[in-house]
Design a protein that fits this description.
Strand content: 15-25%
Distance between the termini: 13 Å
Strand order of the largest sheet: 1-5-4-2-3
Oligomer: single chain
Radius of gyration: 14 Å
Number of helices: 4
Order of helices and strands: EHEEHEHHE
Amino acid sequence: MISMVQLIYGTKGSGKTKRLLEMVNKEAETAQGDVIFIDDDKRYMYDVRHQVRFVDVSEYSVDSEEKLYGFICGMLAQNFDISAIYLDAFIHIVKKQPEEMEFFFKTLIQLAEKNNVKLVLNVSADPAVMPEYLKAFVI
């Protein structure tokens, strides 16, 4: 079974965003629900298909894992048709390292499963020091 939360994990410059963009555009072709792309600015706005809802979280003062979680909950509460959310620049948005966010990831997994939504996060961090609890989610 594929997890509802998936991570593209690697160091800066390793092609994570390119892969994330390819995945979101492919998802948009066949998705049964709405597909969302969240970023910390507008630099990739024209790289995602027009069917994808592009969201720049800097417009909403999202700058921590608590605010990001609340933002995603708000999106899911407002739109029951969301089937996938792709998130670029995760570490830049939350301003914490993965090893500091075990509780966040546990609650995010529960949220994804409860709402039947796929969440794909782009995590810019060193895979050599990846926390054990995240290894099962790396794609």
